[in-house]
Specification:
By secondary structure, the protein is of the alpha+beta class. The strands form two sheets. A three-stranded antiparallel sheet has the order 1-3-2, with helices on one face. A two-stranded antiparallel sheet has the order 4-5. The protein has one helix at about 25-40; strands at about 5-10, 45-60, 60-75, 85, 95. The chain has one domain (about 5-95).
Length: about 120
């Protein structure tokens, strides 16, 4: 039976200054990068970000709803770590992930064809 464990933390609300970072976007990305690297060093793998409602007290008897941005992490498991696979050349090992979180790998009946450029032989009417 699979075991699930997650850690949810608030997303940064402000950017962090650093040399060469001038825009709000660059500073925010810097704050997020630092947080993600810190969590990764502690053994946590980023899964997703969610915005969730939170009821807060407002005045003596009232409440108001605000929204909080949360980052979801899961522990890095041994089976998630890429394992080297021999590839004919000892100098260049090939890495294959053994398990990843993502969409189901089953075929969907009546799935739409892949999107791509139009064929050269089709004439517009």
């Amino acid at each position: 039976m699979p075991r699930y464990e997650f850690k949810v933390i608030p997303a940064p609300r402000r950017g962090e200054k650093a040399r060469g970072l001038k825009t709000i976007e660059e500073r925010f990305a810097n704050a997020l990068t630092g947080l993600m690297n810190e969590m990764g060093a502690e053994g946590w793998d980023y899964l997703r970000a969610d915005t969730l409602p939170v009821d807060e007290r407002s005045g003596l008897t009232g409440t108001k709803t605000s929204f909080q941005n949360m980052l979801v992490f899961r522990p890095i498991l041994e089976e998630d770590v890429a394992m080297p696979v021999s590839a004919g050349s000892a100098d260049q090992p090939v890495f294959v992930a053994t398990r990843r979180v993502g969409p189901a790998e089953t075929e969907v009946a009546n799935a739409a064809p892949p999107v791509g450029p139009a064929s050269q032989g089709v004439a517009a009417e």
